[in-house]
Every structure is written in structure tokens, then in C-alpha cells.
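Predicting holo structure, magnesium ion bound.
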Amino acid sequence: MDKLIVLLDADDTLLDFAKSEKEAIVKTLKEFNVPVSDKIVQRYVEINLHCWKLLETGQITRVYLDRLRFDLLFEEFGIKDKDTVAAGATYRAHLTESGYVIDGCVEFLDKISKRYRLFLVTNGTQPTQIVRLKSAGIDGYFEDMFFSEQIGCAKPYAGFFDYVFSHIDGLDKSRVVLAGDSLTSDILGANNAGITGIWFNPKGQTLSGTAKPDYTVRGYEELEKLLDEIDKMKTDK
Ligand SMILES: [Mg+2]
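Done. C-alpha cells:
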């Protein structure tokens, strides 16, 4: 029987995005002589999330996202005469430098990579994500990595998954699962693609929206056990 194919999201599923994000925004604000406060950092996080939702729903492009988050942030804080395109680029450079994994991630990947075929599926940009994965020391666990920017279509759209499926040798769609933290990109994506969706939900967030996770896990130990169960179930079928 073919090995189970496990698609894994990167940010907040394997990588500790919040930690990298905070580090990158603080450095960027300092370089642009913008006073750093908890409030502006917090608003950046919220604005960034809002911008990513716009991208996920096809309302803005990936390139525009980089500057839009600074346009919105600086406008809100009355900061004038700053080059928001440059701020976007500086932020991206700092984000690229920092790759932190969620506790237990390396051990988890180490174990499941011996049993299953692992693929990375991310809406992050390729150069940024590759450097972050490398600096986090987890890039070697994946048979291949898929980046929405290069595909020209993002999760949750079926086009993203069509591309992924056509680039995995010996793919049997009934033996593909996706694990990720985002309901709007990962789980909805799994639903659209007709594969098993596992919601990685360590913070215990409430289910909302139209996405329907097949399973929900709170951490790596639970996810590892679940993958073994799914593998057994799909093999017994
Ligand atoms: Mg994520």
C-alpha cells in the first residue's frame, strides 16, 4: 500500500510565525524611525491578518499586500512621508532572517517523516519561506514544497491543489491529508480539493465560517496519533 501523503502548512502549523513577525516588525519600525510600542505592534499584527484575508479571497495581489499593510498602519498612526514600499521590503527581509519552530515540531517531523511522505503547502512567498525553513532546520523533511506565489493561485482555491496533485508522483487522492491552522485557507482548501482536512488548533479557537474540518487536534502528539489512525483506516479500507 502507498504511503500516506501528508500536506503540511508552514506558518503557525510548523513555524512560530508570531515570534518571527514580532521581531521583524520591531526591527522595521526602528529602521524607519517610527516609535515602537505594544499598541503599534499589535495593530500591525491585526492589519497583517486582515490583508492576508484580502489575499485569500482574491481581493489583492501578493505584491500589493507587502505595502498595503504599511499604508494602513502608518495612516492609522498618523505617520506621514514614509516609503511604504520600502517598509514592506525591509519587513520581508527581516522576516526572512528569522525562522522559529513551534515547540516539539522537529521531533514531530522527525517521527512522521519516517512513515509518511511529507509535502509543504504554503501561501508564503518562496524565498522568504525557504530561508525560514532552512534556518529553522526543517526544510529537509519534505519531498517537495509548494508555494502559492509560484503556482499563481493560493490556498484555499482548487487551482492550488490541482497543481500540487499533478506534481506528486503516484498520487492517490484518497490517501492525501492536509494539516494546517487556518480554517479559511487550509481547511477550506482541503474541503475544496476533496481531501481529509485536519485542523491544527493548539489555541483551542472556536470553529467559525464555512470550513469543515474532518478532524481537529490540539498539538503534535495528537496529530501524530491521528495520522497513524488515518493511515490504518485508509489501509484497511
Ligand atoms: Mg498557517
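The pocket of magnesium ion is lined by residues 9, 11-13, 180-182 (CB under 6 Å).
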